[in-house]
Design a protein that fits this description.
The chain has 18 helices and 14 strands. It has helices at 11-22, 34-41, 52-61, 71-77, 98-113, 130-143, 165-170, 182-195, 207-237, 243-251, 271-284, 290-314, 340-350, 363-369, 381-385, 398-401, 405-411, 426-429; strands spanning 3-7, 26-30, 65-68, 80-83, 118-122, 151-155, 175-179, 202-206, 321-325, 354-358, 376-377, 390-393, 416-419, 434-437. The protein is elongated, with a radius of gyration of 24 Å. With 451 residues, the chain is an alpha/beta fold. The structure holds uridine-5'-diphosphate-xylopyranose.
Length: 451
C-alpha cells in the first residue's frame, strides 16, 4: 500500500497531493511556510486552480490528505517522498538550489533514523547532473545511508500547466522516470501503472536524460512562441497578412502542431526561468547559445510592442492615461509572476503615463507585490476604461473577449485598442475604434483625427 509524503505545497506539490489523495492514496503534505499550512487547515487555498479547492477539501474530509506540520511526521508515515520545492533562477541566470538542498538535507536526517528502504522522487526542475552531483550526495551525507542500497532515487519531471493542473495530472501526455537504478524505477513504474491506464506513455531513462528533457520541453515551447512572434512582426510590415490566419493553418501540420498563438510574449514561473537557466548551463559547458538567447530577446522586445504602438500614435506618453486589461501571465490563474504585463506597466510609468489596471483574479497579488508602483487599480473593466487614451489587452481573459467596440467608444477618451493577445475580430472593430493587433498589418482603419 502506497503512502506518500509531498514536500513543498506550491502549484505542483499541492496539485499533486490533491490528485494522489483523490486516487485513494494517503498523502502527508508538508511545507516549511507555516502560513500555507494554516491556510490549508482552514480549507482555503492560496493558489487559484480549476477544481482544486473542492477536490482538496474532499480529500481532507475523506481522511486521505493529512496536513503535516512537521517534516518528520510526513516522512515517517510514508514510503515514497516527492520533493516539489521551487528551484528559482538567480540574477546571474544560474539555478538557485538553496531550497532543494535544504529540503534534501532535512529529509536525509530523518531517513537516517528510519530503519527501512524509502524512495525519494524529485519533481523540482533540476539541470542535468544536479541530482547525482548535488541532491543525492546531500541526502547521503546527512543520513549516512547509501543510495541504491538504503534508499531509492527518481527524477520525475512535471509538465503540468498552471490553471489546468488537475486536468493535466489526470491525463498527462507522458510520464518521465529518470531512475538511479532498476529497483527505484520498478517501484515508481508500478505506482504510476496503478494510477494511469495503459494509454499513458511511461518513459524510463537515466536521471540525466529526464533532467535534460524537462528543460528541452520548456525551451522548445518558448522557442515556438518567440518564433511565431517574430513572424508576427513580419506580418505587421507586410500588407494583407495576418498572423492568426498563418498560425491557424500552420498548426494543422502535425509536425508543427499547436502552441503558436502570437502575442506580447510568454511569462509565468516556468518558461522564462527555465530558458535563462538553460542558456547559462549551455554556455557553461561551452556550447554556443545564440538561438536560445534570441528566444529570450524576442520575448523581451515583445513586451515593448504596445509601447512602440502608443508612441507611434502619441509620440509623448507623459500624462496619457493608459488602461491595462490583464495582469496575470495567462488567463484562469491569479499568478502574476514574470508576467509581460508588469514590464509594460513599469515602462509606461517610466514614460510618465498614468496607468489604470484591471484583472479578474490577479489584482490582489499585483497590489501586494508591486505596492510601490503608482498605478490606479480598478475593480471593473468599465471603471478601468473610463477616460483613457488607450487600452492594452495584456492577457486573453474570456471576459475581455466579450467586449464590443461600442463599449470602448463610449467609455474611453480615445478608443485606441492595442490588442496584445489578438482576441478581437478585426473586421468587427475596424469601423468604430483605432485598432492595432499583434501580427496584423495595422495601418489603423481610423486615425486619431477621424475618430
Ligand atoms: C508551462 C508549460 O506549458 C508546462 O508544460 C510546464 O510544466 C510549465 O510551463 P505554464 O507556465 O502554466 O506551463 O503556462 P503555459 O500555458 O504554457 O503558457 C506560458 C506562457 O506562454 C503564457 O504567458 C502564455 O500566454 C504564453 N503563450 C502560450 C503564448 O504566448 N502563446 C502560446 O501559443 C502559448
Amino acid at each position: 500500500m502506497y503512502k506518500v509524503s509531498i514536500i513543498g505545497l506550491g502549484y505542483v506539490g499541492l496539485s499533486l497531493s490533491t490528485f494522489l489523495a483523490s486516487k485513494g492514496i494517503h498523502v502527508w503534505g508538508y511545507d516549511k511556510a507555516r502560513w500555507k499550512l494554516e491556510s490549508l487547515k482552514k480549507g482555503k487555498l492560496y493558489i487559484s486552480e480549476e477544481d482544486l479547492e473542492t477536490e482538496f477539501n474532499r480529500a481532507v474530509s475523506n481522511g486521505l490528505f493529512h496536513i503535516s506540520e512537521k517534516l518528520e511526521e510526513s516522512i515517517t508515515h510514508s514510503n515514497i517522498t516527492f520533493i516539489c520545492v521551487d528551484t528559482p533562477t538567480k540574477e546571474d541566470w544560474r539555478q538557485d538550489y538553496s531550497s532543494i538542498i535544504s529540503a534534501a538535507k532535512s529529509i536525509g536526517k530523518i531517513l537516517g533514523k528510519l530503519d527501512r528502504y524509502h524512495l525519494i522522487v524529485v519533481k523540482s526542475t533540476l539541470l542535468p547532473e544536479s541530482s547525482r552531483k548535488i541532491i543525492i550526495p546531500a541526502i547521503e551525507q546527512e543520513s549516512g545511508l547509501l543510495v541504491g542500497r538504503d534508499f531509492g532515487y527518481i527524477y520525475n519531471p512535471e509538465f503540468l500547466r498552471e490553471g489546468k493542473a488537475l486536468y493535466d495530472l489526470r491525463s498527462p501526455n507522458r510520464i518521465v522516470i529518470g531512475e538511479y537504478d532498476n529497483k527505484s524505477g520498478d517501484i515508481i513504474y508500478a505506482f504510476y501503472k496503478e494510477i494511469y491506464d495503459e494509454k499513458t506513455p511511461i518513459f524510463r531513462m537515466t536521471i540525466e536524460n529526464a533532467e535534460l528533457l524537462k528543460y528541452v520541453s520548456n525551451v522548445f515551447l518558448s522557442l515556438k512562441i518567440s518564433f511565431i512572434n517574430l513572424i508576427a512582426r513580419v506580418c505587421e510590415k507586410t500588407p494583407n497578412t495576418d498572423i492568426n490566419i498563418i498560425s491557424e493553418a500552420l498548426k494543422t501540420d502535425p509536425r508543427i502542431g499547436p502552441y503558436l498563438q502570437a502575442g506580447i510574449g510568454f511569462g509565468g514561473q516556468c518558461l522564462p526561468k527555465d530558458l535563462k537557466a538553460f542558456i547559462s548551463f549551455v554556455e557553461e559547458i561551452g556550447i554556443k547559445s545564440a538561438l536560445l538567447r534570441e528566444i529570450y530577446f524576442i520575448n523581451e522586445e515583445q513586451a515593448i510592442w504596445p509601447i512602440n504602438i502608443l508612441k507611434q500614435v502619441y509620440h509623448d506618453l507623459k500624462d496619457k492615461v493608459i488602461c491595462i486589461l490583464g495582469l496575470t501571465f495567462k488567463p484562469n490563474t491569479n499568478d502574476i509572476r514574470n508576467s509581460q504585463s508588469i514590464k509594460i506597466i513599469s515602462r509606461l510609468l517610466d514614460e510618465g503615463a498614468v496607468v489604470k489596471i484591471y484583472d479578474p483574479e490577479g489584482l490582489e497579488n499585483f497590489l501586494r507585490e508591486y505596492y510601490y508602483l503608482p498605478v490606479i487599480p480598478c475593480n471593473s473593466i468599465e471603471k478601468c476604461l473610463e477616460d483613457t487614451d488607450a487600452v492594452i489587452i495584456a492577457t486573453d481573459w474570456d471576459e475581455f473577449k466579450l467586449l464590443e467596440p461600442k463599449t470602448f467608444k463610449k467609455l474611453m477618451k480615445t478608443p485606441l485598442i492595442i490588442d496584445g493577445r489578438r482576441i478581437y475580430d478585426v473586421n468587427k472593430f475596424k469601423d468604430d475604434v483605432i485598432y492595432f493587433g499583434v501580427g496584423y498589418h495595422s495601418r489603423p482603419f481610423k486615425t486619431l483625427l477621424e475618430i
